[in-house]
Amino acid sequence: MHRIYFDHAATTATDPLVVEAMLPYFTEKWGNPSSLHAFGQEAHAAMDEGRKRVAALVGAKPDEMVFTAGGSEADNLAIKGVAMAAGKGHIITSSIEHPAVLNTCKYLEARGFEATYLPVDKEGIVSPQDVAEAIRKDTILITVMHSSNEIGALEPIEEIGKMASERGITFHTDAVQSVGKMPLDPRKMGAALVSMASHKIYGPKGIGALYVPKGMRIEPLMHGGGHERGLRSSTENVPGIVGFGKAAELALARMDTDIPRIQKMRDRIIDGILGSVPDAYLNGPRARRLPNNAHFRFSFIEGESLLLMLDMAGIAASTGSACSSKSLKASHVLLAIGLSPQEAHGSLRITLGRGNTDDEVKYFLEECPRVVESLRKMSPLGR
User: Fold this and answer.
1) Which of 180, 240, 292, 357 fits a 20 to 30 Å CA distance from 32?
2) How confident is the model at residue 327 (pLDDT cuts 50, 70, 90)?
3) Domain match, 147 and 215 both
4) Quick check: helix, strand or coil at residue 60?
5) Is residue 259 a part of any domain in this protein?
6) Catalytic residues
7) Is 118 part of a structural domain of the chain?
8) Calpha distance 381→279 (Å, rounded)
């Protein structure tokens, strides 16, 4: 039976080389990196190497990386950290952000801060002009994702970052879905804060990072022994950091070969589905999207039924963000690009990874049209 994984935006399998790098730090080199003896220094050296490798993935300096427990914590640290350092003020974000950003902004609104949620166009792109018009004298932070975790749209980050820099406003971008899938440089993006996560690039779950350049003032969320430049107190997850570092090293080394191969499979899927399935549409831009993302909507069917039948055929995919996949509500991202709730519920997200093959794409392009047609015959929605 086929067993095909097309849900790499949700998470990725931990690379065997990453597991191999991590194992000694569970059993042989298990010291606390804050300890002064040899056990501790051994762990500290491994942590330093992991930090260096993660930094290299985005062209940063090792001491600019602050490790967290994942991308959501990195988003929280960035947004709450800036807000608490300022004490009051106005935040600009987009209407299609990950819940880790949107819910954090709502949390701050309940505590006296103000937030503007910018609309996007039908392809999910934020207008830099809208950002400019939303800026106020008391704006303290602009937070716009680098790429949509659902529809894969790449945002005009460099334009927004330049605008923020010229006005002396802190700019944060959630790059969890982009890091390791395409070249990124926080300085070129004009981003003062960048969130990332290990498990999106074949590293372990439970470890993420926030790019924080020296001199950037944010308040910590956790207080204790002053770990991570005093921004994230807690004994460091040494095996996780080692794994993240190895995953970053592999992503950087393989980027030039992974990107064109995966992008070619993505384009084959897009062309194949749009060319063979009536009333099928691509959500998000055709070209300005993540190299591994293909997001469709199909008229007259429910996306959840499509997922279940594809799963029975051995194909794992999703309808949107894994963080909210158990909700029966229509995706806020799809509603923001102008879809009706009914249209949004007929969506399917395909996200490819390093291990996918042309044969798997071929099988999907045979099965998906068959499943869609079968569901439409049974659908009460009609055609």
Assistant:
1) 180
2) low
3) yes
4) coil
5) yes
6) 323
7) yes
8) 13
- 163 with 273, same domain: the answer is no
Q: How many residues does the chain have?
A: 383
Residues 216 and 262 in one domain: no
Q: Give the span between the Cα atoms of 17 and 250, in whole angstroms.
A: 9
Average pLDDT value for residue range 255-278: 98
Q: List the single range of 5-14, 19-28, 133-142, 218-227 with lowest mean pLDDT.
A: 218-227
Contacts of 142 (CB under 8 A, 6+ apart): 91, 92, 93, 131, 135, 160, 163, 164, 169, 170, 171, 172
Question: Which CATH number covers residue 323?
Answer: 3.90.1150.10
Confidence of residue 241 (pLDDT cuts 50, 70, 90): very high
Final residue belonging to a domain, choices 234, 250, 266: 250
272 and 181 fall within a common domain: no
How much of the chain, in percent, has pLDDT values that exceed 90? 89
**What is the C-alpha to C-alpha distance for residues 292 and 7, in angstroms, rounded to an integer?**
10
Q: How many CA atoms lie within 13 A of 336 on its CB side?
A: 22
Choose among 188, 172, 190: nearest CA to 85: 172
Q: pLDDT digit string (tens) for 48-62?
A: 999 999 999 999 999
Residue type (1 letter), 275:
G
Domain boundary among 233, 250, 267: 250
Asked if 227 and 288 sit in the same domain, the reply is no
Task: Please give the pLDDT value at position 335.
Answer: 96
pLDDT, the chain, mean: 95
* Inside any domain, residue 139: yes
CA 309 to chain centre: 27
Residue among 315, 337, 280, 367 at smallest CA distance from 151? 337
Kindly state whether residue 383 falls inside one of the protein's structural domains.
no
Sheet containing strand 139-143, edge to edge, reads: 65-68, 208-211, 193-197, 170-174, 139-143, 90-94, 114-118
**Nearest-angstrom CA–CA distance, 147 and 154:** 4
Q: How far is the C-alpha of 157 from the C-alpha of 190, rounded, in Å?
A: 8
Model confidence at 172: pLDDT above 80: yes
In the chain, the number of structural domains is: 2
